[in-house]
Amino acid sequence: xxxxxxxxxxxxxxxxxxxxxxxxxxxxxxxxxxxxxxxxxxxxxxxxxxxxxxxxxxxxxxxxxxxxxxxxxxxxxxxxxxxxxxxxxxxxxxxxxxxxxxxxxxxxxxxxxxxxxxxxxxxxxxxxxxxxxxxxxxxxxxxxxxxxxxxxxxxxxxxxxxxxxxxxxxxxxxxxxxxxxxxxxxxxxxxxxxxxxxxxxxxxxxxxxxxxxxxxxxxxxxxxxxxxxx
Length: 230
Hints:
Blueprint: H1 20-33, H2 39-47, E1 68-71, E2 74-76, H3 79-90, E3 100-104, H4 110-116, E4 121-126, H5 129-139, E5 147-151, E6 164-169, H6 178-183, E7 184-194, E8 199-206, E9 212-220
Parallel strand pairs: 3-4, 3-6, 4-5, 6-7
Antiparallel strand pairs: 1-2, 7-8, 8-9
């Protein structure tokens, strides 16, 4: 498992003068009120300092349950969505501490840092080089030895590190890309938004024959999944 990023400063003050540990606790309580019950996920949110992943000008809003812009038309997902995605990925997974997960859409690196508290290995791919480099800079001080950040086309997955017990996505396509299904372990699950205008956070489970079962969980709003790199 990862080293705890609390060493990076659980009680430090962010640029707005707010005490991070205290405001993180309030954020976690809000996420709990919204329905997140997995104590592992709630603790991961409490551990990871979200203000380190947002622009300094937005630091005072870092612990609101809202998405915030990170440039290039992308956002850092709201804490509830990060938590809900992780909670769904952890369902029926007793060995998460040894499981490899692929995250599609690194963004600023916040969700990867949260997933690192929950899974044995996190491979996170980002198609925009500027965001990939930003995520590397954000994650480096946390010394998360179980996180690998990859620059590449997330729609194609990362075949070199497959198979994955879980694949989670931070961007929505009309369908689940075939490459993700191919790179998923038998019995593994994908948690991803599906749809264009009416998106649903969807679970895809792969059976021994390679067939998949899909189930929609709740309406969401994500940026669109795009192929290629930029």
